[in-house]
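2024-03-11 09:14:02 DEBUG pipeline.ingest accepted 1 chain
2024-03-11 09:14:02 DEBUG pipeline.ingest length=216
2024-03-11 09:14:03 DEBUG pipeline.predict start
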Amino acid sequence: METKETFKILLDQYFSRITYTNDCFELYKHLIDSKRKYIAEMNFAPAFFQLTYSSLLHTVFIETAKLFDDKSQTSLFKLINICRENVSLFKTTRDIGYVDCDTDKYVLEKTISIDFNKELADCRQLLKNVSRERENLRNQRNKYYAHLDEAYKDNNGKLEKDFPLSFKDMKKFLQIASEVCNKISVMFDESIYAVQTNNVFDVDNLFKKLSKDGSK
């Protein structure tokens, strides 16, 4: 059984993983898009950027697969099961209110009931809604990113053809992960977390320094 302290640590770990993976995904997309504008600057260190692309993409696939693998001990499925086993840790009601600007005091508008079982069922449904995409993610992870299958060693397009996944799919995975964890977090202590750091695109500062006129 979990305590409030150990569950809080566990939940924070999930949010940290999701934030890190989302940052890697957004930075990967940003670098790909930046090729059109900063290809000359990237060519100052082509090997560095090529390795960066590969590392970011590998991280995104491996970490996202861990979150959505129903057999993983660090998955969202496991987190939901832990919640069900520790129902006493969660709130049964939630206060809705605001801070009055004039008095700087909290004003309670209403208290609503939390249907714990329904919230967890909604979390499971979110995962079920991407069952096909989860299977393709698992296969890409197992056959290329984690273990190199002989049939896909050249990665000549066969992997994507057999187990298609788009940028939109990967983004959806991370949005679902954030939604699931925030549903759980609200029931636990009413906290909501953003899953992207503010400076994830600060590589643009480097590109501008390398730019000849600095005006790009």
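2024-03-11 09:14:41 DEBUG pipeline.report The CA atoms of residues 21 and 60 lie 6 Å apart.
2024-03-11 09:14:41 DEBUG pipeline.predict end
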